[in-house]
Amino acid sequence: MGLTGIQIFKLLPKTNCKECGVPTCLAFAMNLAAGKAELASCPYVSEETKAMLSEASAPPIRPLAIGSGENLVKIGGETVLFRHEKTFVNKPGFGILISDSMPESEIDNRLKRFNALKYERVGLILRPEMIALKNESGDPEKFEVLVKKVKSETDAALILMSEKVEALTIGVKACADRIPLVYAATDGNLEALANLAKENKCPLAVKANDIGTLSGLAEKLITAGLKDLVLDSGSRTMRRAFEDQIFIRRAALIQKNRFLGFPTITFPCEMTEDPMKEALIAATFVAKYAGIIILSDFQGESLFPLLVERLNIYTDPQRPMMMQQGIYPIGNPGETSPVLITTNFSLTYFIVSAEIESSRVPSWLLVMDTEGLSVLTAWAAGKFVGDAMGVFIKKSGIVDKVNHRRVTIPGAVAVISGDLEEELGSGWEVKIGPREAAHLPAYLKMGT
Ligand code: SF4
C-alpha cells in the first residue's frame, strides 16, 4: 500500500541539498507520495531504503506492460476505488478476439477493422490496442501461422490463448519481441507456463473458477518468482464477473491482499451473443475495474462510445484537459491574417479552432495557459485578463508573423478588450468575437 509523504520523508536523508530538483526533502517526499517524482532522482537514498521505499510505495495493483513500441499497453497501477478520490491511472486495453479456426477472410476483416478504427478527439487518437489470439483448433502450427500473420500486419499488443503449453511455447517464440500476455496458467499447467513466462520475460495471465483458488495460484506464481500477473476469475456471467472485479479491487486496496494485487482480464465476448449487450457489459468493466477487455469483434458504432467512455473515466477529474500554450497556425496564415486569442482549455481550443477552420479564413490562434480554464471561468479567476494577456501576446512572437496589430478574443466579455488594449499600448486594436462559436466563421469572413 502506498506510503504517505510524511512516512516517506522519515526515510529520506533530510539534508535539503536540492539535487532532486525541489527545495526540500519534504517537498520531494510529497511529490513521491503523489506519484509526481521518481525515487531515483535522489542520489543519497541508501540501497536498503530504496528497496524498502519501492516495495512500500508500490501501488496496490501492480502496474505492468504488454506489447512493445508505440502501442505498448500499460495496465494496473491503480491506487483508488473511486475516481473522485484520485485519478485512475492506466486505462484498460480493448482487444478483439481472433481464433485460428476462423476462415481466412474473417481474420482479414477483423485485422482490417483493428487497423482502421481510429478516431481523433480533443487532439487525442482513440483506438483499440490489443488482439487476443485463440488456439481454438488445438493445432500449434496453425496457431503459429496466425500469430506471425497478426504480428506482421498490426502493431497490436498480443494475448496468446491456448490450453496447450506446446502451442503457447511456439506462439511466444513467434512474437517474443512483442512481449505478449500468455493466457492462462491454471492448476494443471502452472509450472510449465511459469517457466515459459519467466524465460521470455512475458506477463502471465492466471485463471481459476473462484477467487479463493485464483489467489492461491497467484501466490504460487509469486513464490516461483513471477511478478507480472493478470487475473481472470473465470466468471462468464455479467453479475459474477462484476462482483469479482469489485472484490479483487477491494481485496487489493483495503485488505492489502497482495496475491490479488494485479490487473484483471475480462471477456464480455464470452458473456453474451448480443453485440449491444456485449458493448454494455464492456462499458461496465471500463468503469469497474478491468485491466483488459476482450470483445468478440470491433464495430464502429459500439467501439467509439467505449473509447470515449474510457477517455472520460481515465481523465484526471482534478485536472482539466489542456493544450500547450503557443501560436497555432490554422489554414496556412500569412502576415495579413487575423490573430485570435483563447484559453488552453482543450474543449475551448477545439471549438474555436474548428470554427476557424470552417470559416476557411487562414488565421493565427494564440492559446494562452490559463491552467485549463475556459474563457469566462479563466476571466473570473483572474487568469485571462488584460494585463496577463498583453504580456503573453508580446512574448508569444506573433508580432513577427503579422504586419498588423489587431487581435480578436472569441466569446469574451467587453471589459477584457479595454484592459488588453491598454496593456498592449497604442497602435493595437482589440475586438471581441461573437459569444456563440457557431457565429465565428461569418465574423472572420467579414474581416477582423
Ligand atoms: Fe533531500 Fe535527496 Fe532531494 Fe537532496 S536529493 S533534497 S537529500 S530528497
What are the bound molecules?
A: iron/sulfur cluster
Q: Average pLDDT value?
A: 92
The strand line-up of the biggest sheet is 10-9-8-7-6-3-12-11
Estimated structural class: alpha/beta
Q: Could you tell me the strand content as a percent range?
A: 15-25%
Radius of gyration over alpha carbons?
Answer: 27 Å
Low-confidence stretches: none
- Record field, number of beta strands: 17
Question: How far apart, in Å, are the first and last alpha carbons?
Answer: 57 Å
Oligomer state of the chains in this structure: single chain
User: How many separate helices?
Assistant: 16
Helix content: 40-55%
Gross geometry: globular
The largest pleated sheet is described as: 8 strands, parallel
SSE diagram, text form:
Elements: H1 5-11, H2 25-33, H3 47-57, E1 64-66, E2 73-75, E3 93-99, H4 104-116, E4 119-121, E5 124-126, E6 130-134, H5 140-153, E7 157-161, H6 165-175, E8 181-185, H7 190-200, E9 204-207, H8 211-223, E10 229-232, H9 238-253, E11 265-266, H10 275-287, E12 292-295, H11 300-313, E13 326-330, E14 339-343, H12 346-359, E15 363-368, H13 375-380, H14 386-396, E16 406-409, H15 414-424, E17 429-432, H16 440-445
Parallel strand pairs: 3-6, 3-12, 6-7, 7-8, 8-9, 9-10, 11-12, 14-15, 16-17
Antiparallel strand pairs: 1-2, 4-5, 13-15
The structure holds iron/sulfur cluster (SF4).
List keywords for this structure.
16 helices, eight-stranded parallel β-sheet, three-stranded mixed β-sheet, 448 residues, binds iron/sulfur cluster, alpha/beta
